[in-house]
Amino acid sequence: MGKKISPYPFVGGVTALEGERRIARDTAVVVGANILSKILGFGREAVLAAAFGASAATDAYLVALIIPVLLFGLVGNTITTVGIPFFSEYIHRPEKRAELPGLIWTSFHAFTLTLLVIALAGLPAAPWLVHILAPGFAPEQAALTVLLVRILLPMVVIMGVVGWAQGVLNAWQHFAAPAFMGVPYNIIMITGILLAGAWGGIAGVAWATVLATVSQFLIQVPALYRRGITYRPIFHRRHPALKKMLWLSVPVLIGVGANQLNLIVDRMLASLLAEGSISALTYAQRVLTLPQGLLALPLITVLYPALTERIALEDTAGFRTGLGRGLTVLAFMLLPITVGTMVLRQDLVRFIFQRGAFDATDASMTATALLFFTPGLLFLMWREFLSRAFYALQDTATPMWTGLAAVAVNITLNLLLIRPMGLAGLALSTSAAAALGCLLLFWLLRRRLGHIGGKALLGETLRITAASLVMGLLVWWLDERGLGLLGWPAPGKAMGGLAGFVLQGLRLGLVITAGGIIYFFSCRLLRVGEMGYALNLVRGVLKRLIPRPAAR
Protein backbone atom coordinates (compact mmCIF):
# COMPACT_ATOMS: atom_id res chain seq x y z
CA MET A 1 0.00 0.00 0.00
CA GLY A 2 1.10 3.56 -0.59
CA LYS A 3 1.72 5.95 2.20
CA LYS A 4 -1.25 7.70 3.71
CA ILE A 5 -1.20 11.40 3.05
CA SER A 6 -0.79 13.34 6.24
CA PRO A 7 -3.66 15.46 7.51
CA TYR A 8 -0.88 17.69 8.81
CA PRO A 9 -0.38 19.55 5.57
CA PHE A 10 3.09 20.81 6.31
CA VAL A 11 4.54 17.48 5.18
CA GLY A 12 3.47 15.93 1.90
CA GLY A 13 3.52 12.26 0.98
CA VAL A 14 4.15 10.92 4.49
CA THR A 15 2.05 9.47 7.26
CA ALA A 16 0.61 11.73 9.94
CA LEU A 17 3.03 10.32 12.50
CA GLU A 18 6.01 10.90 10.23
CA GLY A 19 4.77 14.42 9.57
CA GLU A 20 4.59 15.21 13.27
CA ARG A 21 8.03 13.70 13.79
CA ARG A 22 9.54 15.85 11.07
CA ILE A 23 7.94 19.00 12.45
CA ALA A 24 9.13 18.08 15.96
CA ARG A 25 12.64 17.31 14.70
CA ASP A 26 13.04 20.57 12.79
CA THR A 27 11.39 22.61 15.53
CA ALA A 28 13.65 20.94 18.14
CA VAL A 29 16.72 22.01 16.18
CA VAL A 30 15.56 25.62 16.02
CA VAL A 31 14.31 25.69 19.62
CA GLY A 32 17.51 24.12 20.97
CA ALA A 33 19.66 26.61 19.09
CA ASN A 34 17.43 29.49 20.12
CA ILE A 35 17.52 28.48 23.78
CA LEU A 36 21.29 28.72 23.73
CA SER A 37 21.20 31.92 21.66
CA LYS A 38 18.59 33.54 23.89
CA ILE A 39 20.46 32.68 27.06
CA LEU A 40 23.53 34.28 25.56
CA GLY A 41 21.39 37.13 24.21
CA PHE A 42 20.01 37.96 27.62
CA GLY A 43 23.55 37.75 28.93
CA ARG A 44 24.51 40.27 26.23
CA GLU A 45 21.69 42.62 27.25
CA ALA A 46 22.50 42.23 30.95
CA VAL A 47 26.18 42.96 30.28
CA LEU A 48 25.25 46.01 28.18
CA ALA A 49 22.90 47.26 30.90
CA ALA A 50 25.51 46.71 33.62
CA ALA A 51 28.28 48.40 31.62
CA PHE A 52 26.38 51.39 30.25
CA GLY A 53 22.91 51.42 31.92
CA ALA A 54 19.97 53.24 30.37
CA SER A 55 22.21 56.18 29.50
CA ALA A 56 22.80 58.70 26.73
CA ALA A 57 25.52 56.42 25.31
CA THR A 58 23.22 53.40 25.05
CA ASP A 59 20.49 55.58 23.55
CA ALA A 60 23.00 56.71 20.89
CA TYR A 61 24.07 53.13 20.15
CA LEU A 62 20.50 51.83 19.93
CA VAL A 63 19.45 54.63 17.57
CA ALA A 64 22.56 54.09 15.44
CA LEU A 65 21.78 50.36 15.27
CA ILE A 66 18.31 51.13 13.88
CA ILE A 67 19.77 52.60 10.68
CA PRO A 68 21.65 49.55 9.31
CA VAL A 69 18.86 47.28 10.52
CA LEU A 70 16.31 49.48 8.75
CA LEU A 71 18.32 49.69 5.53
CA PHE A 72 18.83 45.93 5.60
CA GLY A 73 15.16 45.38 6.35
CA LEU A 74 14.10 47.49 3.39
CA VAL A 75 16.03 45.24 0.97
CA GLY A 76 17.67 42.28 2.67
CA ASN A 77 14.62 40.66 4.26
CA THR A 78 13.17 40.13 0.81
CA ILE A 79 15.88 37.52 0.21
CA THR A 80 14.36 35.29 2.86
CA THR A 81 10.68 36.08 2.51
CA VAL A 82 10.44 36.29 -1.28
CA GLY A 83 13.39 34.05 -2.07
CA ILE A 84 12.24 30.91 -0.22
CA PRO A 85 9.13 30.26 -2.40
CA PHE A 86 11.22 30.55 -5.59
CA PHE A 87 14.14 28.49 -4.27
CA SER A 88 11.63 25.89 -3.06
CA GLU A 89 9.94 25.76 -6.46
CA TYR A 90 13.25 25.09 -8.23
CA ILE A 91 14.24 22.50 -5.61
CA HIS A 92 10.99 20.51 -5.58
CA ARG A 93 10.25 20.53 -9.31
CA PRO A 94 12.67 18.21 -11.14
CA GLU A 95 12.25 19.98 -14.47
CA LYS A 96 13.62 23.20 -12.96
CA ARG A 97 16.36 21.80 -10.71
CA ALA A 98 19.12 22.24 -13.31
CA GLU A 99 18.46 26.00 -13.28
CA LEU A 100 18.79 26.24 -9.48
CA PRO A 101 22.50 27.29 -9.35
CA GLY A 102 21.84 30.10 -11.80
CA LEU A 103 18.96 31.39 -9.66
CA ILE A 104 20.93 31.12 -6.42
CA TRP A 105 24.01 33.01 -7.56
CA THR A 106 22.15 35.52 -9.71
CA SER A 107 20.03 36.48 -6.70
CA PHE A 108 23.18 36.64 -4.53
CA HIS A 109 24.90 39.13 -6.82
CA ALA A 110 21.76 41.20 -7.38
CA PHE A 111 20.97 41.64 -3.69
CA THR A 112 24.60 42.16 -2.62
CA LEU A 113 25.14 44.89 -5.21
CA THR A 114 21.92 46.64 -4.19
CA LEU A 115 22.83 46.59 -0.50
CA LEU A 116 26.36 47.83 -1.21
CA VAL A 117 24.98 50.87 -3.02
CA ILE A 118 22.63 51.58 -0.11
CA ALA A 119 25.43 51.25 2.46
CA LEU A 120 27.70 53.64 0.57
CA ALA A 121 24.86 56.15 0.21
CA GLY A 122 24.32 55.98 3.97
CA LEU A 123 27.78 57.33 4.83
CA PRO A 124 27.21 60.98 3.80
CA ALA A 125 23.53 60.78 4.83
CA ALA A 126 24.29 59.70 8.42
CA PRO A 127 23.85 63.16 10.09
CA TRP A 128 20.54 63.70 8.31
CA LEU A 129 19.29 60.23 9.28
CA VAL A 130 20.24 60.75 12.93
CA HIS A 131 18.45 64.09 13.02
CA ILE A 132 15.28 62.43 11.74
CA LEU A 133 15.47 59.42 14.07
CA ALA A 134 16.42 61.30 17.24
CA PRO A 135 15.39 64.96 16.97
CA GLY A 136 15.62 65.37 20.75
CA PHE A 137 19.32 64.47 20.99
CA ALA A 138 21.74 67.16 22.17
CA PRO A 139 24.54 68.06 19.69
CA GLU A 140 27.18 65.98 21.49
CA GLN A 141 24.92 62.91 21.65
CA ALA A 142 23.91 63.37 18.00
CA ALA A 143 27.58 63.53 16.93
CA LEU A 144 28.31 60.30 18.80
CA THR A 145 25.33 58.66 17.07
CA VAL A 146 26.61 59.73 13.62
CA LEU A 147 29.99 58.15 14.39
CA LEU A 148 28.33 54.91 15.47
CA VAL A 149 26.14 54.84 12.33
CA ARG A 150 29.20 55.01 10.08
CA ILE A 151 30.88 52.19 11.99
CA LEU A 152 27.76 50.01 11.71
CA LEU A 153 26.87 50.64 8.04
CA PRO A 154 28.88 47.64 6.66
CA MET A 155 26.31 45.52 8.47
CA VAL A 156 23.85 46.35 5.69
CA VAL A 157 25.78 44.22 3.18
CA ILE A 158 26.78 41.56 5.72
CA MET A 159 23.20 41.08 6.94
CA GLY A 160 22.05 40.78 3.34
CA VAL A 161 24.47 37.92 2.72
CA VAL A 162 23.33 36.31 5.99
CA GLY A 163 19.68 36.51 4.89
CA TRP A 164 20.48 35.09 1.45
CA ALA A 165 22.23 32.08 2.98
CA GLN A 166 19.37 31.51 5.41
CA GLY A 167 16.80 31.66 2.61
CA VAL A 168 18.67 29.11 0.50
CA LEU A 169 19.14 26.69 3.41
CA ASN A 170 15.55 27.00 4.64
CA ALA A 171 14.27 26.26 1.15
CA TRP A 172 16.28 23.02 1.40
CA GLN A 173 14.46 22.35 4.72
CA HIS A 174 17.76 22.85 6.57
CA PHE A 175 17.39 24.88 9.77
CA ALA A 176 20.35 24.01 12.00
CA ALA A 177 23.05 26.39 10.71
CA PRO A 178 20.75 29.46 10.47
CA ALA A 179 19.34 28.67 13.92
CA PHE A 180 22.79 28.50 15.55
CA MET A 181 24.11 31.72 14.05
CA GLY A 182 23.04 33.63 17.18
CA VAL A 183 25.57 31.70 19.30
CA PRO A 184 28.83 33.11 17.88
CA TYR A 185 27.10 36.48 17.48
CA ASN A 186 26.31 36.76 21.18
CA ILE A 187 29.67 35.37 22.34
CA ILE A 188 31.49 38.00 20.29
CA MET A 189 29.08 40.72 21.49
CA ILE A 190 29.49 39.85 25.19
CA THR A 191 33.27 39.86 24.82
CA GLY A 192 33.18 43.14 22.93
CA ILE A 193 30.89 44.86 25.45
CA LEU A 194 33.09 43.81 28.36
CA LEU A 195 36.19 45.13 26.61
CA ALA A 196 34.40 48.32 25.49
CA GLY A 197 33.07 48.95 29.00
CA ALA A 198 36.59 48.75 30.40
CA TRP A 199 38.52 50.59 27.68
CA GLY A 200 36.85 51.41 24.39
CA GLY A 201 33.53 53.07 25.24
CA ILE A 202 30.35 52.63 23.23
CA ALA A 203 32.26 52.79 19.90
CA GLY A 204 33.87 49.48 20.84
CA VAL A 205 30.40 47.94 21.13
CA ALA A 206 29.65 49.08 17.57
CA TRP A 207 32.82 47.47 16.18
CA ALA A 208 31.99 44.26 18.04
CA THR A 209 28.51 44.31 16.46
CA VAL A 210 29.99 44.38 12.95
CA LEU A 211 32.36 41.50 13.72
CA ALA A 212 29.56 39.50 15.34
CA THR A 213 27.39 39.94 12.23
CA VAL A 214 30.16 38.51 10.02
CA SER A 215 30.15 35.36 12.16
CA GLN A 216 26.45 34.81 11.31
CA PHE A 217 27.37 34.26 7.68
CA LEU A 218 30.49 32.20 8.31
CA ILE A 219 28.61 29.64 10.41
CA GLN A 220 26.30 28.93 7.43
CA VAL A 221 29.06 28.42 4.86
CA PRO A 222 29.76 24.73 5.67
CA ALA A 223 26.05 23.85 5.31
CA LEU A 224 25.98 25.53 1.89
CA TYR A 225 29.03 23.56 0.75
CA ARG A 226 27.47 20.28 1.90
CA ARG A 227 24.60 20.94 -0.49
CA GLY A 228 26.95 21.59 -3.38
CA ILE A 229 26.39 25.35 -3.27
CA THR A 230 29.87 26.57 -4.15
CA TYR A 231 30.55 30.02 -5.48
CA ARG A 232 29.91 30.61 -9.16
CA PRO A 233 30.35 33.99 -10.92
CA ILE A 234 26.88 33.84 -12.45
CA PHE A 235 24.64 36.81 -13.05
CA HIS A 236 21.79 36.27 -15.50
CA ARG A 237 20.10 39.63 -15.37
CA ARG A 238 17.27 38.31 -17.57
CA HIS A 239 16.61 35.23 -15.46
CA PRO A 240 12.77 34.88 -15.40
CA ALA A 241 12.65 34.02 -11.70
CA LEU A 242 14.89 36.98 -10.82
CA LYS A 243 12.59 39.37 -12.65
CA LYS A 244 9.59 38.00 -10.79
CA MET A 245 11.44 38.09 -7.48
CA LEU A 246 12.39 41.72 -8.00
CA TRP A 247 8.83 42.59 -9.01
CA LEU A 248 7.37 40.90 -5.92
CA SER A 249 10.09 42.45 -3.77
CA VAL A 250 8.78 45.98 -4.22
CA PRO A 251 5.70 45.48 -2.00
CA VAL A 252 7.86 43.58 0.51
CA LEU A 253 10.27 46.49 0.67
CA ILE A 254 7.40 48.84 1.44
CA GLY A 255 5.77 46.44 3.89
CA VAL A 256 8.96 45.68 5.80
CA GLY A 257 9.81 49.36 5.76
CA ALA A 258 6.39 50.08 7.25
CA ASN A 259 7.09 47.65 10.10
CA GLN A 260 10.48 49.26 10.70
CA LEU A 261 8.79 52.65 10.67
CA ASN A 262 6.83 51.64 13.77
CA LEU A 263 10.15 51.15 15.56
CA ILE A 264 11.54 54.42 14.23
CA VAL A 265 8.51 56.45 15.29
CA ASP A 266 8.71 55.00 18.80
CA ARG A 267 12.39 55.93 19.08
CA MET A 268 11.88 59.41 17.64
CA LEU A 269 9.16 60.27 20.13
CA ALA A 270 10.96 58.52 23.01
CA SER A 271 13.94 60.83 22.40
CA LEU A 272 11.63 63.68 23.50
CA LEU A 273 10.90 61.98 26.85
CA ALA A 274 13.16 61.47 29.86
CA GLU A 275 16.72 60.26 29.30
CA GLY A 276 16.83 56.48 29.06
CA SER A 277 13.37 56.15 27.50
CA ILE A 278 14.75 54.69 24.27
CA SER A 279 16.73 52.14 26.25
CA ALA A 280 13.69 51.25 28.38
CA LEU A 281 11.63 50.58 25.24
CA THR A 282 14.41 48.43 23.82
CA TYR A 283 14.96 46.42 26.99
CA ALA A 284 11.21 45.77 27.31
CA GLN A 285 11.09 44.47 23.75
CA ARG A 286 14.10 42.27 24.50
CA VAL A 287 12.11 40.51 27.24
CA LEU A 288 9.43 39.62 24.69
CA THR A 289 12.01 38.22 22.29
CA LEU A 290 12.31 35.22 24.63
CA PRO A 291 8.84 33.72 23.89
CA GLN A 292 9.10 34.92 20.31
CA GLY A 293 12.49 33.36 19.72
CA LEU A 294 12.05 30.17 21.73
CA LEU A 295 8.48 29.26 20.79
CA ALA A 296 6.75 31.23 18.05
CA LEU A 297 9.47 31.98 15.52
CA PRO A 298 10.95 28.45 15.50
CA LEU A 299 7.52 27.05 14.65
CA ILE A 300 6.92 29.71 11.99
CA THR A 301 10.40 29.14 10.58
CA VAL A 302 9.70 25.42 10.15
CA LEU A 303 6.18 25.85 8.79
CA TYR A 304 6.89 28.59 6.23
CA PRO A 305 9.01 26.52 3.80
CA ALA A 306 6.52 23.67 4.19
CA LEU A 307 3.64 25.99 3.32
CA THR A 308 5.52 27.07 0.18
CA GLU A 309 5.94 23.37 -0.62
CA ARG A 310 2.15 22.85 -0.34
CA ILE A 311 1.60 25.69 -2.80
CA ALA A 312 4.28 24.34 -5.17
CA LEU A 313 2.45 20.99 -5.12
CA GLU A 314 -0.93 22.76 -5.57
CA ASP A 315 -2.36 21.37 -2.30
CA THR A 316 -4.65 24.25 -1.31
CA ALA A 317 -6.66 22.18 1.16
CA GLY A 318 -3.52 21.15 2.99
CA PHE A 319 -2.31 24.74 3.00
CA ARG A 320 -5.61 25.94 4.50
CA THR A 321 -5.73 23.27 7.22
CA GLY A 322 -2.12 23.79 8.23
CA LEU A 323 -2.61 27.53 8.44
CA GLY A 324 -5.52 27.18 10.86
CA ARG A 325 -3.66 24.70 13.02
CA GLY A 326 -0.58 26.91 13.15
CA LEU A 327 -2.64 29.89 14.33
CA THR A 328 -4.26 27.83 17.08
CA VAL A 329 -0.99 26.40 18.36
CA LEU A 330 0.52 29.89 18.46
CA ALA A 331 -2.42 31.04 20.60
CA PHE A 332 -2.02 28.02 22.90
CA MET A 333 1.65 28.88 23.46
CA LEU A 334 1.55 32.67 23.63
CA LEU A 335 -1.64 33.67 25.47
CA PRO A 336 -0.54 32.26 28.86
CA ILE A 337 2.86 33.90 28.37
CA THR A 338 1.13 37.21 27.64
CA VAL A 339 -0.87 37.09 30.89
CA GLY A 340 2.05 35.78 32.94
CA THR A 341 4.45 38.44 31.65
CA MET A 342 2.02 41.24 32.49
CA VAL A 343 1.58 39.89 36.03
CA LEU A 344 5.29 39.25 36.66
CA ARG A 345 6.71 42.16 34.65
CA GLN A 346 8.47 43.87 37.55
CA ASP A 347 10.04 40.66 38.85
CA LEU A 348 11.22 39.75 35.34
CA VAL A 349 12.84 43.13 34.70
CA ARG A 350 14.55 43.18 38.10
CA PHE A 351 15.88 39.65 37.64
CA ILE A 352 17.18 40.16 34.10
CA PHE A 353 18.52 43.71 34.18
CA GLN A 354 18.70 45.39 37.60
CA ARG A 355 22.38 45.39 38.47
CA GLY A 356 25.37 47.64 37.88
CA ALA A 357 24.40 50.91 36.18
CA PHE A 358 20.81 49.72 35.66
CA ASP A 359 19.03 51.07 38.74
CA ALA A 360 15.49 50.95 40.17
CA THR A 361 14.38 53.91 38.05
CA ASP A 362 15.50 52.18 34.85
CA ALA A 363 13.71 49.00 36.00
CA SER A 364 10.48 50.88 36.65
CA MET A 365 10.53 52.51 33.20
CA THR A 366 11.26 49.19 31.50
CA ALA A 367 8.49 47.37 33.42
CA THR A 368 5.99 50.06 32.39
CA ALA A 369 6.90 49.67 28.72
CA LEU A 370 6.72 45.88 29.04
CA LEU A 371 3.19 46.02 30.50
CA PHE A 372 1.85 47.77 27.40
CA PHE A 373 3.99 45.97 24.81
CA THR A 374 2.90 42.51 25.96
CA PRO A 375 -0.78 42.56 24.83
CA GLY A 376 0.44 42.77 21.23
CA LEU A 377 2.59 39.61 21.47
CA LEU A 378 0.09 37.13 19.99
CA PHE A 379 -1.11 39.60 17.34
CA LEU A 380 2.49 40.26 16.32
CA MET A 381 3.24 36.55 15.85
CA TRP A 382 -0.09 35.86 14.15
CA ARG A 383 0.63 38.72 11.78
CA GLU A 384 4.07 37.27 11.04
CA PHE A 385 2.57 33.85 10.27
CA LEU A 386 -0.24 35.29 8.14
CA SER A 387 2.24 37.44 6.19
CA ARG A 388 4.30 34.32 5.48
CA ALA A 389 1.12 32.65 4.20
CA PHE A 390 0.61 35.46 1.70
CA TYR A 391 4.27 35.29 0.67
CA ALA A 392 3.88 31.54 0.09
CA LEU A 393 0.98 32.41 -2.24
CA GLN A 394 3.37 34.86 -3.99
CA ASP A 395 1.15 37.74 -2.90
CA THR A 396 3.38 40.43 -1.46
CA ALA A 397 1.04 43.37 -1.98
CA THR A 398 -1.47 42.48 0.75
CA PRO A 399 1.05 42.40 3.64
CA MET A 400 2.40 45.69 2.29
CA TRP A 401 -0.75 47.76 2.45
CA THR A 402 -1.97 46.20 5.70
CA GLY A 403 1.44 47.09 7.14
CA LEU A 404 0.98 50.67 5.99
CA ALA A 405 -2.44 50.79 7.66
CA ALA A 406 -0.87 49.53 10.90
CA VAL A 407 1.82 52.21 10.70
CA ALA A 408 -0.83 54.90 10.27
CA VAL A 409 -2.62 53.65 13.40
CA ASN A 410 0.66 53.48 15.32
CA ILE A 411 1.67 57.04 14.44
CA THR A 412 -1.79 58.42 15.18
CA LEU A 413 -2.01 56.71 18.56
CA ASN A 414 1.57 57.71 19.41
CA LEU A 415 0.72 61.37 18.91
CA LEU A 416 -2.52 61.02 20.86
CA LEU A 417 -1.15 59.01 23.78
CA ILE A 418 2.39 60.30 24.34
CA ARG A 419 1.23 63.38 26.25
CA PRO A 420 -1.20 61.68 28.71
CA MET A 421 0.66 58.33 29.00
CA GLY A 422 4.29 59.04 28.05
CA LEU A 423 6.36 55.88 27.58
CA ALA A 424 3.34 53.64 28.21
CA GLY A 425 1.46 55.33 25.35
CA LEU A 426 4.22 54.52 22.86
CA ALA A 427 4.19 50.85 23.85
CA LEU A 428 0.38 50.63 23.78
CA SER A 429 0.30 52.17 20.31
CA THR A 430 2.65 49.47 19.02
CA SER A 431 0.40 46.73 20.43
CA ALA A 432 -2.72 48.27 18.89
CA ALA A 433 -1.02 48.59 15.49
CA ALA A 434 -0.01 44.91 15.60
CA ALA A 435 -3.61 43.92 16.40
CA LEU A 436 -5.01 45.92 13.49
CA GLY A 437 -2.50 44.53 11.00
CA CYS A 438 -3.21 40.98 12.15
CA LEU A 439 -7.00 41.30 11.89
CA LEU A 440 -6.77 42.82 8.41
CA LEU A 441 -4.56 39.98 7.17
CA PHE A 442 -6.87 37.38 8.71
CA TRP A 443 -9.94 38.87 7.05
CA LEU A 444 -8.28 39.17 3.64
CA LEU A 445 -6.85 35.65 3.73
CA ARG A 446 -10.27 34.26 4.67
CA ARG A 447 -11.77 36.04 1.65
CA ARG A 448 -9.09 34.58 -0.61
CA LEU A 449 -9.24 30.97 0.65
CA GLY A 450 -12.97 30.84 1.34
CA HIS A 451 -12.47 29.72 4.93
CA ILE A 452 -9.63 28.96 7.34
CA GLY A 453 -11.66 27.67 10.26
CA GLY A 454 -12.29 31.09 11.78
CA LYS A 455 -15.13 30.02 14.07
CA ALA A 456 -13.16 27.10 15.44
CA LEU A 457 -10.13 29.36 15.92
CA LEU A 458 -12.24 31.95 17.78
CA GLY A 459 -13.74 29.32 20.07
CA GLU A 460 -10.35 27.81 20.87
CA THR A 461 -8.82 31.25 21.46
CA LEU A 462 -11.59 32.21 23.90
CA ARG A 463 -11.10 28.99 25.87
CA ILE A 464 -7.34 29.49 25.92
CA THR A 465 -7.84 33.10 27.06
CA ALA A 466 -10.08 31.99 29.93
CA ALA A 467 -7.52 29.38 31.03
CA SER A 468 -4.77 32.00 30.85
CA LEU A 469 -6.73 34.49 32.96
CA VAL A 470 -7.35 31.86 35.65
CA MET A 471 -3.64 31.12 35.64
CA GLY A 472 -2.77 34.83 35.81
CA LEU A 473 -5.02 35.44 38.82
CA LEU A 474 -3.55 32.56 40.80
CA VAL A 475 0.02 33.48 39.80
CA TRP A 476 -0.59 37.04 41.02
CA TRP A 477 -1.85 35.74 44.37
CA LEU A 478 1.07 33.33 44.71
CA ASP A 479 3.62 36.04 43.88
CA GLU A 480 2.11 38.76 46.04
CA ARG A 481 0.70 36.73 48.95
CA GLY A 482 1.22 32.99 48.75
CA LEU A 483 5.02 32.84 48.86
CA GLY A 484 5.03 35.40 51.66
CA LEU A 485 3.07 32.97 53.82
CA LEU A 486 5.92 30.50 53.29
CA GLY A 487 8.54 33.02 54.44
CA TRP A 488 9.84 34.19 51.05
CA PRO A 489 10.87 37.87 50.79
CA ALA A 490 8.37 40.21 49.15
CA PRO A 491 8.92 40.47 45.35
CA GLY A 492 9.85 44.16 45.52
CA LYS A 493 12.46 43.75 48.24
CA ALA A 494 15.97 44.52 47.06
CA MET A 495 18.18 41.43 46.94
CA GLY A 496 21.75 42.15 45.88
CA GLY A 497 24.73 39.98 45.09
CA LEU A 498 24.90 36.46 43.74
CA ALA A 499 22.73 35.08 46.54
CA GLY A 500 20.02 37.62 45.78
CA PHE A 501 20.19 36.82 42.07
CA VAL A 502 19.82 33.08 42.76
CA LEU A 503 16.93 33.71 45.17
CA GLN A 504 15.16 35.87 42.57
CA GLY A 505 15.65 33.12 39.98
CA LEU A 506 14.29 30.43 42.31
CA ARG A 507 11.28 32.56 43.16
CA LEU A 508 10.48 33.24 39.51
CA GLY A 509 11.04 29.61 38.58
CA LEU A 510 8.66 28.43 41.30
CA VAL A 511 5.94 30.89 40.32
CA ILE A 512 6.27 30.15 36.60
CA THR A 513 6.19 26.39 37.20
CA ALA A 514 3.07 26.74 39.33
CA GLY A 515 1.52 28.87 36.58
CA GLY A 516 2.24 26.21 33.98
CA ILE A 517 0.55 23.54 36.08
CA ILE A 518 -2.49 25.75 36.67
CA TYR A 519 -2.70 26.52 32.94
CA PHE A 520 -2.51 22.82 32.05
CA PHE A 521 -5.41 21.87 34.31
CA SER A 522 -7.44 24.93 33.28
CA CYS A 523 -7.12 23.88 29.62
CA ARG A 524 -8.20 20.35 30.52
CA LEU A 525 -11.28 21.64 32.35
CA LEU A 526 -12.17 23.98 29.48
CA ARG A 527 -11.56 21.23 26.88
CA VAL A 528 -9.08 23.11 24.73
CA GLY A 529 -9.08 21.03 21.53
CA GLU A 530 -5.54 21.70 20.26
CA MET A 531 -3.99 20.90 23.64
CA GLY A 532 -3.28 17.30 22.65
CA TYR A 533 -1.57 18.25 19.38
CA ALA A 534 0.48 21.01 21.03
CA LEU A 535 1.59 18.70 23.86
CA ASN A 536 2.55 15.98 21.37
CA LEU A 537 4.61 18.54 19.48
CA VAL A 538 6.26 19.72 22.71
CA ARG A 539 6.90 16.11 23.75
CA GLY A 540 8.55 15.38 20.40
CA VAL A 541 10.70 18.49 20.71
CA LEU A 542 11.78 17.60 24.25
CA LYS A 543 12.70 14.05 23.22
CA ARG A 544 15.13 15.50 20.71
CA LEU A 545 16.44 18.22 22.99
CA ILE A 546 16.92 15.78 25.90
CA PRO A 547 17.83 12.42 24.35
CA ARG A 548 17.49 9.30 26.45
CA PRO A 549 20.72 7.77 27.77
CA ALA A 550 21.96 4.86 25.74
CA ALA A 551 21.03 1.43 27.07
CA ARG A 552 23.83 -0.56 28.61
Outline the structure in words.
The protein contains 22 helices and no strands. The two termini are 37 Å apart. Residues 1-17 have low confidence and may be disordered. With 552 residues, it is mainly α. Helix 6 (139-152) runs parallel beside helix 10 and helix 9 runs antiparallel to helix 10. The longest helix has 37 residues, at 16-52. It is 81% helix and 0% strand.
The helix tally amounts to 22
Q: Work out the strand percent.
A: under 5%
Derived structural class: mainly alpha
Please write the string of helix (H) and strand (E) elements: HHHHHHHHHHHHHHHHHHHHHH
Q: How far do the termini sit from each other?
A: 37 Å
Query: How many strands?
Result: 0
Most strands sheet: none
Point out poorly predicted stretches: 1-17
Mean pLDDT across all residues, rounded?
80
What characteristics describe this protein?
552 residues, mainly alpha, 22 helices, disordered N terminus
Summarize this, please?
The protein has helices at residues 16-52, 56-75, 77-81, 83-92, 100-133, 139-152, 155-171, 176-180, 182-200, 202-218, 221-226, 240-270, 277-312, 316-343, 345-353, 360-373, 377-392, 397-421, 423-449, 454-485, 497-526, 531-545.
